[in-house]
């Protein structure tokens, strides 16, 4: 893989992040929504040489970042595309946040899968699939706890961040969509992902010439 794709994706993410930060509906909500982008992007830049990811995963991370930035700019309950889908399909609410939580399962599942395949003895199969799904659900649960903490600390000021839109089952729907996303990612992309890892020259433990192998 050349350096062009990660560089192009980084430029795209930075551009979308900058756009989202110009006049967002609520500055505090924007900061909370884009916080994962602000945390993950520097880590990916710092590990680009030592531990490059597959092009597939870089693309998915960039797409997820874009979803977060758009949601942060408008707040999830007021993204225009969500209103268009609501009106076109006759839905009761703006479902853009459902897309966000689907992606919250889809992308972390592929990230966990890649890390486990490259740094552990696990191979493609049931145990890998089960563990990847559990990791995605754990990430979703942590995010719901963050939302709960925001509600406790900020009260009504956290409404835009929570994006429940009056749905008492919003938390359960969020985690369910993350589960669906994690399963869908593995069903749809496992074979493509395996080939991408092979093309990267990575394997169990991501061993390189000169690395010591434990006895």
| Sheet of most strands | none
Q: Sketch the topology as an H/E string, one letter per element.
A: HHHHHHHH
Q: Structural class, from secondary structure content?
A: mainly alpha
Q: Which spans of ≥5 residues are poorly predicted at pLDDT below 50?
A: 207-215
β-strand amount? under 5%
- Coarse shape: globular
Which range best describes the helical content: under 10%, 10-25%, 25-40%, 40-55%, 55-70% or over 70%?
A: over 70%
What gyration radius follows from the Cα positions, in whole Å? 18 Å
For the record, give the distance between the C-alpha atoms at the N and C termini, rounded to a whole number. 32 Å
Count of DSSP strands = 0
Mean pLDDT: 86
* Helical segment count: 8
């Amino acid at each position: 893989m050349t350096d062009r794709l990660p560089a192009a994706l980084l430029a795209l993410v930075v551009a979308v992040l900058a756009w989202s930060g110009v006049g967002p509906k609520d500055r505090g909500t924007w900061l909370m929504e884009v916080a994962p982008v602000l945390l993950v992007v520097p880590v990916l830049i710092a590990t680009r040489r030592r531990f490059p990811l597959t092009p597939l995963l870089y693309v998915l991370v960039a797409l997820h970042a874009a979803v977060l930035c758009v949601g942060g700019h408008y707040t999830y309950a007021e993204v225009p595309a969500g209103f268009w889908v609501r009106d076109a399909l006759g839905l009761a609410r703006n479902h853009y946040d459902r897309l966000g939580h689907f992606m919250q399962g889809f992308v972390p599942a592929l990230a966990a899968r890649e890390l486990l395949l490259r740094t552990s003895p696990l191979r493609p199969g049931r145990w890998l699939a089960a563990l990847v799904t559990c990791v995605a659900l754990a990430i979703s649960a942590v995010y719901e706890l963050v939302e709960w903490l925001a509600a406790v600390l900020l009260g009504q000021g956290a409404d835009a961040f929570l994006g429940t839109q009056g749905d008492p089952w919003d938390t359960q729907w969020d985690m369910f969509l993350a589960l669906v996303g994690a399963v869908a990612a593995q069903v749809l992309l496992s074979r493509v992902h395996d080939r991408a890892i092979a093309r990267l020259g990575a394997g169990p433990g991501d061993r390189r010439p000169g690395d010591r192998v434990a006895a």
